[in-house]
Write a structure and sequence with these properties.
The protein is mainly alpha-helical. The protein contains 5 helices and no strands. Helix 1 runs antiparallel to helix 2, helix 1 crosses helix 3 and helix 2 packs antiparallel against helix 5.
Length: about 160
Amino acid sequence: MFDTRNDLSAEIRTKVIRLLNARLADAIDLALSAKHAHWNVKGAQFIALHELFDKIAGEIHEHVDTLAERVTALGGSAGGTLGAVVRASSLAAYPENIADGLAHVEALAAAVADFGRKVRAAIDEAAGLGDADSADLFTGVSRETDKQLWFLEAHLHG
């Protein structure tokens, strides 16, 4: 860990950095899954879903940057390489062999919901460690993740 004047103890920072890096790996994995869906979607709703998946990927990338910067602000090293993500992501592998728009919506909605569930757990864990700032960061990510899930699930109803 790098030196910092942050007044959280080294023990707390170590635990929070581990938590942040776990969700960072998931966020990078999720962003890549959304881009995969964006590039490979086919069907009658192509343009709407192509644009939606790209928007979701962009919003997740913003979370990636926020999570990584918090890790480094606490004196840690953000695990942003492909190898680090492969080792650390807890998300299920995104299906690589689908093209149908609604199949991508279903797969991406499942991944976003799983990510959201893990981010909500991270809110409580960061708060329990006494890091209100990281809990607040996770709360913002959670709020946006729920909105992305709403946009996806709206395509599954009707």
